[in-house]
Write the structure tokens for this entry.
Amino acid sequence: MILLRSHIGLVLRSSRVEQGRTLRDVAKSARVSLGYLSEVERGQKEASSELLNSICSALDISLGEVLQSVSAQIKVQETPTLIVVDDAA
Amino acid sequence: MILLRSHIGLVLRSSRVEQGRTLRDVAKSARVSLGYLSEVERGQKEASSELLNSICSALDISLGEVLQSVSAQIKVQETPTLIVVDDAA
């Protein structure tokens, strides 16, 4: 099943890792606990809209960008896989 | 403050209204309570990822489409308003 929180977590984590930052650093800057941020990144907890904004601020990314990446990821997952069978082979 | 839950609610509500369906009908089909759906639509409650999927199913729309509309709405809200002053006037 495609879960919104998993995709939000993936996008937040990849953004943090790209910036070479630690969970501790981003959690402190977003004023959330390290455990909370870790659970959100792993898709184990739904981030409230307010804390999602804090995490985006801490990462210096816009919520719109995060959601755009999330929707792109979800659309790829929703697309049925096409298997091409090459009869000529 | 831009809140994800408000934008998700707006997109779900406009989709339901476009289809000419009632809260009662969609809530029943999504197996959520009418009060819950109403609160989600008004941005007063964070929908869990699982129930968001149920609501999307009930509306026969994909989560990817919902998130695409949500990200577009949020990006518009994030864009600073440009006021053009026409000196020639």
